[in-house]
Each structure stands twice: as structure tokens, then as C-alpha cells.
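Posting for a labmate who doesn't have an account.
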Amino acid sequence: MASVGRRAMDDRRRTVGEDTEMTSDLNAIARLKAPDLTVIEQLAREAFERLPPSFRALCEGVVFIVQDFPDKDALDAVGVENAFDLLGLYEGVDISDETALRTDVNRIFLYRRPLLDYWAEHDETLGHLVTHVLVHEIGHQLGLSDEDMEAIEAAAR
């Protein structure tokens, strides 16, 4: 009978400890703010640096621009009506065309609010999501397959 009581006390202590740990985690979470434009840009830069060098070389000099939402021109360019449906957009010369003049600036737009909305609804990290969007925006310009882009993402982890 004493061992049953002891086990119950051990279970109770574990529950109290877990509650204390959870409360601490909740307090930390309660103080968090949504990532701002600067944080998203930093995630993009870090993600870009983790991409394979051969892939990065194909889009050397690309500029990251983070905005809260895509503008009407961006939505119209890809045929999207709802701003929350567009997470990112590549704008610039076709980087797969070796004869194209490289005078224009190639830009990747990342849209913070759609990214955060998607992140809140799915089970993945924000860093992984930003990496995914970058790889796909560049990859589509290069004509890469989904399998190729998945391999590049995997190499960036």
C-alpha cells in the first residue's frame, strides 16, 4: 500500500513539474510578438546562405524585399485575387536565359502577412516556410521540377 501511495506522489510531482514548465513556456509565448518585416528578411538571408552554392550562383545579386502584402500589380501578374494566397514572387530577368542582359535587378518579394497566416495554419517552422518560398521562386525561374526543388530544400536544412 505504501508503494501505491509513493507512486501516486511521484505522478503528482511530475504533473506539478510539467505544469510549472508549461506555465513558464506559456509566459514566454505570451510575450512574443509577430515577426516583423526585418525578421522575415533576416530569415530569407539566412535561408539563402544555406542553399547549395551552385544554386545560389545562378541568382547572384538577388534582392529580397519583404512587404506586408502583395500589391495589386503583383496579384494581377500571377492571376491571384486574394492577397493571402501569394506568399512570394520573383521579379526580374529570366535567370535561366543565359543570353538575357543582367542589367535589371532580380528581386524576390516575400509577403509577411500571408506567410504568417500560412505558418499559423500549418505544422512547420517559419524558417522552413521562408526557405520553401525562396527555393520555389528561384526554382520556377530556372524551370526546375518539384523534385529538384525538394532536393535543394533538403540540402538547405
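Reply:
Got it, the C-alpha cells are right above this. The longest strand covers residues 63-67.
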